[in-house]
Amino acid sequence: MNTGVDDGLWSAIGDPTRRRMIDLLLAEGQGTATTLSARLPVTRQAVTKQAVLDRAGLVRSTAAGRERRYHVDEAQLARAVAQLQSVGALWDARLQRVKNIAEAIQRAKNEKK
Question: What is the pTM of this model?
Answer without folding.
Answer: 0.72
